[in-house]
Here is the input.
Amino acid sequence: MKKIIMIKIPGCPYCAKARKAIEELHGEEKYKSVPVEEIDETTQPELAKPYGKDYYYVPSLFIDGKKQFEAKPGMDYDTIKAAVVKAFDEALK
Here is the structure.
């Protein structure tokens, strides 16, 4: 199983939607053990820096340094959750 890295910033409504999706998925048997490390771009810039060239918007999800998802302005919860599910499935491979 691979770890998901989520780049986020405080107060981001799309990050909140991704966090909600992650919490819901962690409640499911299939996904409960998928590790997710959250990196706050504003308070942990040194940890976010290696991913900086590969994203503009947050949240962005990475597995093994490869971007799995990058939110875009206007995305709704269902779209974000579907992308989080896809990343979780990739982490399980």
